[in-house]
Write a structure and sequence with these properties.
By secondary structure, the protein is an all-alpha fold. It has helices at 2-10, 12-46, 48-63, 66-73, 84-108, 112-120, 125-156, 168-177, 180-210. The protein contains nine helices and no strands. It starts with a helix and ends with a helix.
Length: 211
């Protein structure tokens, strides 16, 4: 362990740079997934007939192995290719399901009596959504974002296989050279990042639930 600590310290600059790339990939993908998933989840509560096929299609994407999805996306015009763009698209697709499903479930879980009270106060549908439904559903929505972020941190390590950078670079380099120190140099920061996000978002979810 002493040797591993010295190795990690010597490569701290490279590890920090790759961790920043990793964080950027996950952050961009999560932001896009939220921007798509939350409005779409709300829309599905207004169009119940579309909920099953849309959620089913999102579930199908989750069954595709990550490397296979990267491979499918590479030849796609404008979205594919080698590099970070393809990785972001793949991470968005994987992050959509938990955000979409939780948004849909959260809005539907709002007490109908509260919705009727909002209507009775003369709120428009937009006001009711903004002031009543979304605030009450926010803990459930945030739980979906939490899952998407943690999954994204793990999947982003695989994105190094298509030249997207991130901590997966060290893992793949370690595997190719049979160097467990390089593997740990990529795996340990990625695991710590996932745990940190899980704890922070979990605390925010509990706080919103209490409020």
């Amino acid at each position: 362990m002493t040797g591993l600590g010295a190795f990690l310290w010597e490569r701290r600059g490279e590890i920090a740079a790759l961790a920043a790339q990793h964080l950027l990939l996950v952050g961009i993908a999560t932001a896009i997934a939220v921007a798509i998933g939350v409005p779409l989840g709300v829309a599905l509560t207004r169009r119940p007939r579309l909920a099953r096929p849309v959620l089913g299609a999102a579930s199908v994407v989750q069954t595709i192995p990550s490397l296979a999805l990267f491979g499918f996306l590479i030849p796609v015009p404008f979205l594919g290719g080698i590099g970070a763009r393809t990785a972001v698209v793949a991470l968005v697709l994987y992050g959509l399901l938990p955000i979409l499903r939780n948004t849909h479930a959260g809005i539907r879980s709002v007490d109908p009596a509260i919705v009727e009270a909002a209507d009775g106060l003369g709120m428009t549908p937009r006001q009711r959504l903004r002031l009543v439904e979304l605030p009450l559903a926010m803990p459930v929505v945030l739980a979906g974002v939490r899952v998407a972020v943690v999954v994204g941190v793990g999947l982003a390590t695989i994105a190094a296989a298509i030249g997207a950078g991130g901590l997966g670079v060290l893992i793949y380099r370690g595997v190719s050279t049979v160097d467990h120190r390089l593997i740990l140099a990529g795996a340990v920061p990625a695991a710590l990042m996932a745990i940190l996000f899980d704890v922070v978002l979990g605390a925010a979810e509990k706080r919103l639930s209490r409020r």
